[in-house]
Amino acid sequence: MVDYSKGRSEEELEAFYPNEILRHTLLTFLFISAVMLGVMFFPESFQKSTDEFASFPTRPPWFLLPFYHCSSLINNKIWHVTTLAIYAITFISIPFLDRNSERSLWKKPIFLSIVIINLLMIIVFGLIKFHL
Amino acid sequence: MSKTCKKNKFSQNINNWFEERYQLEDVIEKNLTKKLIPKGISWFRCMGGFALIAFLMQVGTGIFLVFYYVPSASEAFNSVQYIRHTVSYGWLIQKVHAVAPHFMVVALVVHMIRILFKGLYKNPRELHWVSGALLLVLTLVICYTGTFLPANSLSYWGVSSVGGEVAMPTMVTDHTVGSYHDGGTVSNRNLVAVYALHIACIPIMMCIIMGFHFLMIRRTGVSEPL
Predict the structure, then answer these.
(1) B73-79: long-range contacts at Cβ-Cβ below 8 A with a sequence spacing of 24 or more?
(2) Distance between CA atoms of residues A71 and B44, nearest Å
(3) How many Cβ atoms from other residues are within 10 Å of residue B69's Cβ?
(4) What are the beta bridge partners of residue B152?
(5) Do the domain assignments include residue A19?
């Protein structure tokens, strides 16, 4: 296991327990509180599939909307799944595709533009599906 | 001898019993009480931890839901309604199970974007990214399969209103047990197939990849700030 104390002075280090544990515990409680607030205020669309007089539109979770929109653009089931699979594999393989020794994305204009275009595309797809 | 003294002696005996056999004190000291970490670690590094908490919440509430949910096309909706309206605190458990994935996806996306923009996936942490990205993909897939299970309007919408040609579980199950959306009704066999993916296959894969992810973080440590 990694030893953080190697090559560092005492001033650069702090105790994992209780400092970091306390921070994590606080954040855990904050997160659980946020979920509970979500439980109280999140609008829920739970209605029977056969309900012809549904009072609200049926919409998938926001994070699936871009993929649903992609499916309306590509009508073939095989092509749709293949496209998503290629997209996922490319995303997973980023460390092997980005061979530049520079770490910060801000200093790699081509890679930065590819990332921003993809992020914007996902957001726009989601928004389009949301309003359709 | 006072009650407190007896209690202390009892806990000391238990402690000694474990210490003799497993030498836990050394492990605890090395990994917790005497462990030192670099100062000034950003609070944003907790995003992965948030996703883990959300996953654990999903597992906890999911185990509860498994006891009451009926994976049958005709009974699924009613069983969820039973959980929501009849079982004590069932509404809370079901709602947490429905809402926590939104937080989990946000935490994962923020975590991945931070790593992407800071280039923290560089040598020697390439596999950290690979396992993390796989976890994000699996999270989306598990959320997707989850939307089919209550057999509510959203489940039908997923397979019908977009043309019936989109569902990945449909594609998987088409080749194994037939179509999910079978002549206007949800087919039982496919609901069970999607259910198996949702409660067993994907969570087990996620647990294995998560274990691998955490083990690698322990081996290489957190990255240096830029």
Answers:
(1) B73/B151, B73/B185, B73/B186, B73/B187, B73/B188, B73/B191, B74/B188, B76/B149, B76/B150, B76/B151, B76/B186, B76/B191, B77/A48, B77/A49, B77/B150, B77/B151, B77/B152
(2) 34
(3) 20
(4) A48
(5) yes
The pLDDT, as a whole number, for residue B25 is 87
Domain count, chain A: 2
* Rounded CA separation A2/B89 (Å): 44
Map out the domains of chain B with their CATH numbers.
48-220 (1.20.810.10)
For the stretch B124-164, pLDDT in tens is 899 999 999 999 999 999 998 898 888 777 776 666 554 44
CB spacing of A2 vs B220 below 8 angstroms? yes
Q: Do A28 and B36 touch (CB under 8 A)?
A: no
Residue A121 lies in a domain: yes
Same domain, A76 and A35: no
CB count, 10 Å around CB of A73? Answer: 10
CB count within 10 Å of CB A129 equals 21
Higher pLDDT, A36 or B157: A36
> Rg of chain A over CA atoms, in angstroms?
23
Query: In chain A, what residues touch B140 (CB-CB under 8 Å)?
Result: 63-64, 67
pLDDT for the residue A47:
60
Answer yes or no: do A68 and A126 share one domain.
yes
